[in-house]
Amino acid sequence: MTTEAVTSEPGQRPIGVAVLGHGTVGAEVVRIIRDDATDLEARIGAPLELRGVAVRTVRDDRGIPQDLLTTDAEDLITRDDVDIVVEVIGGIELPRKLVRAALDSGKSVVTANKALLAEYTGELAEAAEAKRVDLYFEAAVAGAIPVIRPLTQSLAGDKVNRVLGIVNGTTNYILSAMDETGADYAETLAEAVRLGYAEADPTADVEGFDAASKAAILASIAFHTRVTAGDVYREGISKITAADLTTARALNCTVKLLAICERITTDGRDRVSARVYPALVPREHPLAAVNGAFNAVVVEAEASGRLMFYGQGAGGSPTASAVMGDLVMAARNRVHGGRGPRESRYADLEIAPMSDIVTRYYVNLQVADRAGVLSAVAAEFAKRDVSIAAVRQEGAGEGARLVVLTHCATDKALSDTVAALDQLESVIAVTSVLRLEGSAE
Ligand code: NDP
Ligand code: HSE
Q1: Is the entire prediction scored with pTM above 0.90?
Q2: What are the structural domain ranges in the chain?
Q3: Residues 143, 318: Cα–Cα separation, whole Å
Q4: In CATH, which of 3.40.50.720, 3.30.1330.30, 3.40.50.2300, 3.60.110.10 is domain 15-143+317-336?
Q5: What is the pLDDT of residue 438?
């Protein structure tokens, strides 16, 4: 029996693609478009033809024909033979201008740019809507892990209540290494830079900005509400110490930088909370086992229950996988008609302030080791109706430390308690404060 190769739809013209950027991600996208052309044509029903690759500097060591390279991205995206623009440059203002111009010219856009989307999804989605073209961005959150499409499509008929994720590989690498080796933060960060996980300037990763952008994107989709990076409460990991990891181990926990997007229902009214901070996570929680530069996202929806997505959240090849999935979808839509899901923001829920969020705290205090200190500390918790779950003393004399673990209370009550503890004469220092997530009461 002979099998006929399935190629293009009869009479189908090629789909022209412009790739903006030939760095870590762009170079892999270009490689796959060129190396897997036959399979891609069969899957799309038309050949995918690379019209050009925009770069900052034209060099001859990129392994692609020189005539494909250009430094004029604006000219490339508006060419008549370009149907789909892939934006993998990074930054905000330049890609905003380019993506907007591409959409306004009727091109579909695929982007991996979380920083751009966390600020401007609204503007860009409206531009895509006006021209009835696609705006896809699976790669913007958690690299290769399919999470945008499951939320927008597979769970479109369900009600999502919570999305909890480790969405930054650099910080997860650092925290996992601190947990495994007992090394301190600065030492582990230097190693992450040396290994290429962290950028030379790792601020966006370690201060939680990257994860906050991803949280804004996830919350917008999960709760059908426009959430921007500015709506996301954010703390980074730069104050986490080796001592925090030691205490976490003693509590049978580890520390993870979490992105938490939650539906908060009070008196029948739904609001959205989006927040990023390092938190204690019990060892038995599935996210505690996500180590190194890996990412994972747990989605809790009413009908589906808990779902977990796990894999490589960064790197050229994994990220290109997600970009290519979007590119094939956008190309299929060009060939067969139809469009991907539009921005859904009908619910338009209010953003809940951090002070209203109910959470648990771990507070580490350096205290004077004498009678009455414990009761003075406990009184500050009691005054604000914060119930203590456990207290332990570590060390003695000058080095005495009290570690207090609370039950659930509002973040305001907990932070007011910590501020009051800081003023107590018997408390030498509030050494660290971390929230505890993923545990029972
Ligand atoms: P790189 O810095 O590796 O590559 C950026 C590319 O953009 C380079 O090829 C650069 O050109 C080009 N470029 C910069 N300025 C211009 C300009 N003015 N005109 C034309 N081209 C320009 O970035 P990444 O590949 O790492 O990231 C790309 C995007 O993907 C970002 O939005 C990032 O957040 C996102 N992303 C990245 C992941 C990763 O693991 N790297 C994971 C998930 C998302 P030249 O080569 O000449 O310098
Ligand atoms: N800097 C990001 C990370 C890259 O470490 O996860 C992927 O978005």
Answers
A1: yes
A2: 15-143+317-336, 147-313, 357-436
A3: 6
A4: 3.40.50.720
A5: 86
For 40, residues 6+ apart whose C-beta sits below 8 A from its C-beta are 32, 33, 47, 48, 328, 331
SS3 label, residue 181:
helix
Determine the atom of ligand 1 nearest the C-alpha atom of 315: 40
Helix 169-181 vs helix 185-194: crossing angle, to nearest 10: 130
In angstroms, rounded to a whole number, what is the distance separating the alpha carbons of residues 401 and 207? 27
**Burial class of residue 43, CB neighbours in 10 A (0-12, 13-18, 19+):** middle
d(CA 55, CA 355): 45
Of the candidates 212, 179, 438, which has an alpha carbon nearest to the alpha carbon of residue 292? 179
Q: Are 84 and 109 in contact (CB under 8 A)?
A: yes
Residues with Cβ within 8 Å of 128's Cβ and at least 6 positions away in sequence, in order, are 103, 108, 109, 134, 135, 342
Could you tell me the distance, in angstroms and rounded to a whole number, from the CA of residue 223 to the centre of ligand 1? 30
Task: Verify whether ligand 1 is closer than 6 Å to residue 383 (CB atom).
Answer: no
Superfamily of domain 357-436: ACT domain (3.30.70.260)
Q: Compute the distance between CA of residue 87 and CA of residue 235 in angstroms, rounded to an integer.
A: 29
| Cβ 169 under 6 angstroms from ligand 2 | yes
Query: 313 CB less than 6 Å from ligand 2?
Result: yes
- Give the residue numbers annotated as catalytic, written as ranges: 214
Identity of the amino acid at 424: L
User: Tell me: the pLDDT tens digits for 314-324?
Assistant: 999 999 999 99
337-384 pLDDT, tens digit per residue, is: 999 999 999 999 999 999 999 999 999 999 988 888 999 999 999 999
CATH number for the segment(s) 147-313: 3.30.360.10
Up-side HSE of residue 89: CA atoms within 13 Å toward CB?
Answer: 22
Sign of CA dihedral 179, 257, 428, 380: negative
Altogether, the residues listed in the chain come to a count of: 441
Phi, psi of 136 (to 5 degrees): -115, 145
Q: Which atom of ligand 1 is nearest to the CA of 25?
A: 25
Nearest CA to ligand 1 atom 6: 21
DSSP category for residue 140? G
- Give the count of alpha carbons within 13 A of 159, CB side only: 6
**Gap from CA of 323 to ligand 1 centroid (Å):** 13
Q: What residues have CB less than 8 Å from 385, skipping those under 6 apart?
A: 409, 413
DSSP letter assigned to residue 13: P
Give the ligand at the shortest distance from the Cα of 89: 1
Q: Measure 147 CA to ligand 2 centroid, in angstroms.
A: 15
Which residues, in sequence order, are bridge partners of residue 429?
A: 366
